[in-house]
Amino acid sequence: MEQDKTYSVRWYGPFETIEEVKTFEKRNPKIECQLYLINGYRPRAKYSSYYCGQTQRGVNKRLSDPGHHINDCNRIEAIWIGSITNMIDLSKKDINIVEKIITAQMTETYGSRFVLNETNTLFPKYNVFVLNFWHNKDCLRLSRYKQYTIPSEMPDVIGHEYEKNIDTHCLFSAGKIKWYKID
Predict the structure, then answer these.
(1) Phi, psi of 152 (to 5 degrees)
(2) What is the chain's mean pLDDT, rounded?
(3) Is residue 54 a contact partner of residue 91, using CB atoms and an 8 Å limit?
(4) What is the pLDDT of residues 80-94, one digit of tens each?
(5) Which of 36, 60, 75, 118 would bridge 21 by S-S if both were Cys, CB 3.0 to 4.6 A apart?
């Protein structure tokens, strides 16, 4: 049986184009991003759609793939790219788990009809905690967020609790973290 796991994700953005993501990745080669969040409008849609994805080969390369969900949106509002920073031997399974927890939270936040993810539906059979830290394109931590953006609506702490004896899964979250400067 797996032990509880905690993942720290540093998000960078918002980017408006794949080209901006590519430029960021070139300027910051030490930052390896495995996750991305997309917020955009599908043709003739009145409301935004959201997508959480993963990659092991660079976000700009993944977003440039033919048939990617980014092509479902004719107007991109924002792209956020995320790096899981606290794992030494980060596996594909770890990335899948983080994507699953974030996608589940997005579904709770925005509603399933606005989330484009259709895969990665299995929850882990152990407790998982995801800590989200938001940074701008210059890698500086954000303390304020524009209203109605992904960082303002996505909780900084997301948890998944698995109760083995009754085989149930619970998702919980704790809004925004209060930051205090300590001298």
Answers:
(1) -75, -25
(2) 90
(3) no
(4) 999 999 988 899 999
(5) 60
The residue to which tokens 């830290």 are assigned? 133
Q: What is the pTM of this model?
A: 0.91
CA distance 96 to 53: 9
Q: Per-residue pLDDT tens for 96-108?
A: 999 999 999 999 9
Least Cα distance to 51 among 101, 130, 116 occurs for 116
Of 10, 67, 57, 19, which is closest to residue 37 (Cα–Cα)?
A: 10
Q: Which residues pair with 60 in a beta bridge?
A: none
Distance between CA atoms of 175 and 14, rounded to whole angstroms? 20
Query: 81-113 as b/e, with b when 16 or more CB fall inside 10 Å?
Result: bbbbeeeeebeeebbebbbbbbbbbbbeebeee
Q: How far is CA 145 from the centre of its chain?
A: 16
CB 59 within 8 A of CB 33: yes
Q: Which amino acid is at 44?
A: R
Peptide bond preceding 124 in cis form (omega within 30 of 0): no
